Amino acid sequence: MTSSDSGAAPPSRATSDLDDAVSVFQRHRGRLFGIAYRVLGSVTEAEDVVQEAWLRWQKTDRSVVDNPMAFLSTTATRLAINVAQSARVRRESYIGTWLPEPVDTSADPEVGAERAEAVELALLLVLERLNPSERAAYVLREAFDYGYPEIAEMLGLSPANVRKIVSRARRHLLDEAREPVDTAEHRRLLDAFVAAARTGDVASLEVLLTPDAVSLSDGNGIRGCARVPVLSAARVARLSSRRLLWHDAETEAVTANGLPGALVSREGRPVALLTVVASKDGIHQVLWVFNPDKIAAFLDSRSRGTAALG
Length: 310
Fold this sequence. Notes:
- The protein is of the alpha+beta class.
- The chain folds into two domains: 14-175, Butyryl-CoA Dehydrogenase, subunit A, domain 3 (Up-down Bundle); 183-304, Nuclear Transport Factor 2, Chain: A, CATH 3.10.450.
- It contains 13 helices and six strands.
- Strand 5 (269-279) and strand 6 form a beta hairpin.
- The radius of gyration is 22 Å and the shape is globular.
- Residues 108-114 and 305-310 have low confidence and may be disordered.
- Keywords: Sigma factor, Transcription, Transcription regulation.
- GO terms for molecular function: DNA binding; sigma factor activity.
- Residues 122-173 form the RNA polymerase sigma factor 70 region 4 type domain.
């Protein structure tokens, strides 16, 4: 029986070509999101970049594209750099401390990158000090293992210049680095911190913190949210144990950007996401996300599985 006999028309060449385009794009989508998120520190902006990359892939004469992954990665990188340049201006009007949007990396931590580099919130925050092109060069090299010639072509720079940029970024990050603890110890320190904070045990909190500990709170003007960094173990301990924060609160263990975190809820409504940065000397950074939009983005990343970060 022919297709005409069965009444089903054969797929058109255009339909088949679009199906192929969708298949190729879906295969690389996780990587595109991973690149864009690391450059931008924003789930929402990274998703916008991925969507724009798809639109451009649709409109491209794909018959002349020899390497779809290289084409799509270059497109996403350049789009992310453009967005980052405009985002810097927008963030100047942000009220208080700006932190990257957290993502849940527990669902599928292997998708989108060969290595889980440049995804921790504290590192993303340090990367913000680099200009967008420097950030992109570091991300492409360290998180996705692109060669210097490939990165140079993607960014329109010379390989020698890319080497210098990546080397400078590494030095900059090393200046900020402390020897991290393993995941189990990180979770133990975070759980102990939450337990002490909930009960108002300031003395125990101070023991967990390094003398130079700092607390950063992202609330974009939310009432009661510290708008400047809080310095020293004593002050961080007092701030973290406020009764107003923990009254009738419940906590859920989560994984945010590759590290243990705690989602704080009240009457079933998430009100804060807490993560810490720890070394063998103790907790030296406490990161609070109170901004409802960023908490919503984190929850959305859990349901969508956009943990395409490696």
